[in-house]
Design brief:
By secondary structure, this protein is mainly α. The protein contains five helices and no strands.
C-alpha cells in the first residue's frame, strides 16, 4: 500500500468514527476533528483547485503533479502537505468548518454551499483555528 493510500484510509476511518454519535461522545473524538485531513482523491483535488482559483490572495501554494494528473498512488509528501494546507485554509475561510469535511462539499452531485450558509459541521468559537 502506498503512503498516500494508507494515509487516506486512516483519515477516512477516523473521520467516520467522529461522525458516529456514540463513539464521538464516549471517546471525546471531537478533539481530533481539527487534526484530521481531507481524504484526497480526484474530486477533492479538483474542488481545491476550483476554490483556489475563485478565492482572493494570499493563498497557500499548490504543488503540481507529474504528468499534470492527480494520483493517490504517486502522491509525494510535499504535494500532500500543500493540498492539506490549502484545504485547511479553504475550510476555515470559505466553509467555516474543518478540512476533513471538505470532501462532502466536493462530492459529485452535491450542490455547492455558499460561504454565508452554515455547514452541518461548522467550527464553533471554542474550536476555531486562529
Amino acid at each position: 500500500m502506498s503512503w498516500g493510500t494508507a494515509r487516506k484510509c486512516l483519515n477516512i476511518f477516523l473521520r467516520d468514527a467522529t461522525y458516529n454519535y456514540y463513539m464521538r461522545n464516549r471517546y471525546g473524538l471531537e478533539v481530533i476533528e481539527p487534526l484530521l485531513e481531507v481524504p484526497l482523491d480526484n474530486n477533492v483535488e479538483k474542488g481545491i483547485r476550483r476554490d483556489m482559483r475563485r478565492l482572493k490572495p494570499p493563498l497557500p501554494p499548490l504543488l503540481e503533479f507529474e504528468n499534470g494528473a492527480f494520483s493517490i498512488i504517486d502522491l509525494k509528501r510535499e504535494q500532500h502537505e500543500s493540498y492539506q494546507n490549502a484545504a485547511e485554509w479553504i475550510a476555515r475561510e470559505e466553509y467555516r468548518t474543518h478540512r476533513v469535511h471538505l470532501n462532502l462539499f466536493y462530492f459529485p452531485g452535491v450542490r455547492s454551499m455558499k460561504s454565508s450558509q452554515t455547514p452541518t459541521h461548522a467550527v464553533t468559537a471554542s474550536d476555531a483555528v486562529e
